[in-house]
Each structure stands twice: as C-alpha cells, then as structure tokens.
C-alpha cells in the first residue's frame, strides 16, 4: 500500500513539474517600422519585470516568457506597443512613428587626430522645427547635413564623426 501511494505521489509531482515548465516558452520574431525596415536595437521587455532583450541588426529578437505575459516593445521615435503572449511562438511587430514625443536630439561626436595629445570636441544644436521641416522618413535622415562634421550613414542607423 505504501509503495502504491509513493508511486502515485511521484507521478503527481512529475505532472505538476511538467505543467510548470510547459508554461514558459521561447518567443521570437522581428520588429520593423511602418515601411517594413528592421529596427536594430529595439527593446523587448516582459511587462512588470526587468527581464528583456533587444533586437539584433536584422530586427530579430528571442525571449523566454510565460504564456499570458505581456511583451512591451519600444524604440526611440516610435510609440510603445504591448502584446499579450498567446499560443503562438512567433510575434512580429510593426512600430508606428511618434513624431510628437521626439522634441530634441542630442548628438555627441568625439574625434581623435593622429597625434594623441590633440582632441577634438564640438557641440551642435538642431531645433525640433528644423527636423519637422525636413521631409524625412526617420529622425536620423532628418539630421543629415544639419550638423557640421557629422556623417550619418543609412546602414544601420549609426552616427559617425568625420576624422581630420
């Protein structure tokens, strides 16, 4: 009788452990903007926790979370999006631009010359009105040509200082 009770208790414990681990799964997908371009460096967080990740160069992410939890997607210049985890293991997100929240952009460029003792540092300011007047797809291209000595490349949204 005692052996039968121990066997049933062990089976019940194994079933409970299996249910507990079955709730956590790996969610993956891509984060892109309205035109379908990937957003590298977008943040993906599990709501109410400090667990999160960021997207890679191709806008792809992977995170372990429980079914029923909510994922929070955010990126500078875009509205935050919250999506509940359901039965699917793939969640692809398209972020919408939020031009209202972007008031000021601060770009800091630091350059070194060939001689280590000389150091170049400059501060430039671009008003929000100048960015709004520029008919650009994203804030990075709106800065192109507005800051002296800074070259903004289109791939992958990097600001590169010019070296002299």
Automatic annotation (TrEMBL):
Superkingdom of this protein's organism: Bacteria
Record key words, sorted: Signal
Signal peptide interval: 1-22
Keyword Cell inner membrane: no
TM segment ranges: none
Protein's UniProt name: Carboxypeptidase-like regulatory domain-containing protein
Lineage, uppermost ranks: Bacteria, Pseudomonadati, Bacteroidota, Flavobacteriia, Flavobacteriales
């Amino acid at each position: 009788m005692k052996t039968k009770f121990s066997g049933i208790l062990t089976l019940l414990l194994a079933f409970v452990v299996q249910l507990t681990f079955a709730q956590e799964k790996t969610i993956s997908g891509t984060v892109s903007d309205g035109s379908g371009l990937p957003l590298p460096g977008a943040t993906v967080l599990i709501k109410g926790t400090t667990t999160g990740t960021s997207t890679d160069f191709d806008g792809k992410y992977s995170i372990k979370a429980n079914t029923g939890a909510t994922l929070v997607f955010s990126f500078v210049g875009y509205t935050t999006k919250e999506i509940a985890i359901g039965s699917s293991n793939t969640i692809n997100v398209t972020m919408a631009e939020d031009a209202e929240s972007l008031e000021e952009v601060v770009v800091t460029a630091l350059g070194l010359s060939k001689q280590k003792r000389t150091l170049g540092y400059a501060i430039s300011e671009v008003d929000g009105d100048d960015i709004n007047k520029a008919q650009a797809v994203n804030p990075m291209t709106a800065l192109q040509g507005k800051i002296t000595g800074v070259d903004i490349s289109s791939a992958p949204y990097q600001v590169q200082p010019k070296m002299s």
